[in-house]
Amino acid sequence: MAHSLWLFFLLLSSATACDRCVQQSKAAYFSSDSPLPSGACGYGSLALNLSGGSLAAGVSSLYKLGAGCGACFQIRCKDPKLCSSRGTNVTLTDLNYNNQTDIVLSNSAFTAMANQGMAQDVLKLGIVDVEYKRVPCEYKNQNLAVRVEESSQKPNYLVIKLLYQGGQTEVVSIDVAQVGSSNWNAMARNSGAVWDTSRFPDGALQFRFMVTSGHEGKWVWAKTALPADWKNGLVYDTGLQITDIAQEACTPCDDGNWT
């Protein structure tokens, strides 16, 4: 629990980065989209379900030790001759190691910034000046879900992956207990959106998630998330739909005259 609290306060301190503010940077793209689904967040092919293939790798300040996985951003290139003012929305699914850019986009997301008929011209540039800001993720018909990973080994090891995390939020801690019990055990972040534990009870399982949005945090409780006969490889609906929006304490905020 001490480790969870330390991580919680570490991630809360990142609120000073002002996610909601417009950031100025550059963006590149992957010639192949395959690195993004298989990236540091651990989504695998399920990443394509998060935003229709509009994916991004972000630098460490966006990745946030994995807590930024699944975050949504609106991004647009700054050349009005080539690119639209609305830009496109992307979901963060990987860590960007390129120190020339904050964000590396999937091919489809990169071309989605372009004006009609200008996609190939944007691609030829390779790297473009961009501005971006974090926006809420919207999964109107989809609750927060957990996927039991294939590496789970009942009754000794449980690995889950978080999917469809809505709002402008980050999950910084997860506890697991048997349904009806108050004997909670902390899970650890394995990598990105993947969490694991070797301490979990028999029977149906409940989870509680520490969800932060800016400088505020709260516990949300999935009272019955996994049935007693849970199976590896299956996705389970938690019944929770997270819609919180960041309430950041940082000022001033450069909105970049975003329209």
Automatic annotation (TrEMBL):
Organism: Hibiscus syriacus (Rose of Sharon)
This protein's GO CC annotations: extracellular region; plant-type cell wall; plasmodesma
Pfam families on file: DPBB_1, Expansin_C
Taxonomic placement: Eukaryota, Viridiplantae, Streptophyta, Embryophyta, Tracheophyta
Domain Expansin-like EG45: 38-142
Protein name: Expansin-like A2
Keyword Signal attached: yes
GO BP: anatomical structure morphogenesis
PROSITE patterns according to UniProt: EXPANSIN_CBD, EXPANSIN_EG45
